[in-house]
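User: Show me sequence and structure for the first protein, then do the same for the second.

Assistant: Starting with the first protein.
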Amino acid sequence: MRIGFTLPQFGPFAGDGSGVTRFARRAEELGVASLWVGDRLLAPVHPKVGYGGSDAIPAEFAVRLDPFALLAAAAAVTERVRLGTNVLNAPWYPPALLARSLTTIDALSGGRLVPGLGTGWSPEEYEAVNVPMTERGARLDECLDALEALWTTDPAEYRGRHWTVPETHDSFKPVRTPPVYLAGYAPAAMRRIARRAAGWLPVVTPPAEYDPATAIVAPLAHLRQLAAEAGRDPAELGAILRIYPRACAGVADVVTAIERTAEDTDLRDVFVDLTFTARSTDHALELVETILGRTSPEPA
């Protein structure tokens, strides 16, 4: 099993930002396979939609660092680990800007970028970027089309209903076309994953009950069936499990989730979000070392 962790980005784990490069460097030394960032813009005082099914926004999101800056910093001090986004809210970004940032990070890292894209859930964040939330699915589809054009053609051009990239010389390409993973469980999201993603980003939340058969095996089989119906080779569709421990979760809960995934699914990639469990960069590194020591990680 290849095991990754999130970079210090939110809450006490993020601190003042100075621990990012130290965490990234040491995590790679410990044998971590991947490092990840999320994409939060606001922590609304009176949210219309809360986080994770609640009515509130976690206090940790009051501190939030820029995902692109963190990945660039991690790329500069590591040589092996893959660098992932979990997830960038693609409808917020004009595709030309998004492609420029992601291509730069891929180049800085020597082709280690694993972009995970989604649509987000916060109405206030959509209001802040002046993008209608009702258009999020359509904008994500167009973003995927535009990224493909910008990453694979020169000159590149894209014209859609929501986004436009006028024809442009575009010789700066990723080291290899980044494998885009998509998040989501809704039927439309699953169809999009099956048609056009390199893989899916399912979620489990220790210590909540976790049955790999229902959480991963069955929906992944459904996705692969949809992929076959869309004319794709279903074997091409992978998955990376996101493990989001709640604040009350212990190391044993995380280790159990990793072990059950290894034993009961064909997934070989997971990462652990430390946002709600790590009190500082030092504490996070202690958790990383303990979790790796209790599992059987493989390098990236």
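Switching to the second protein now.
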Amino acid sequence: MSFFARWLVTAIAVAAAVWLVPGIEIIGGDSAWIGIALFALILALVNMSVKPILQVLSLPISVLTLGIFYLVVNTLMLYLAAWLANGLFGVGFWIASFGSAFVASIVISIVSAIVNSIVGDK
């Protein structure tokens, strides 16, 4: 899958999370779509670079929890991307609590999986 397609899928998933999850808001920017696009770009870059390293490091805990700890890794990636987007561009996510981030990471994972299955590898 090309990077542009991955970015578009992530943007759709982030928009769904902003719409569905209370405690998650887009901050900064002229419009919400610019904030979503920039945040999705940073989240896609973080997921491609940092997430595989954290998944390998957390492998023993993930085996013990039968893979449920990967949801915590996804939540941490969401926090990292929000911190980077807010710090670098002043645009991104405002996360009210860990619970909101946890639910948002689940929503982003589910929506990404659905949109990826529709888009495919082509």
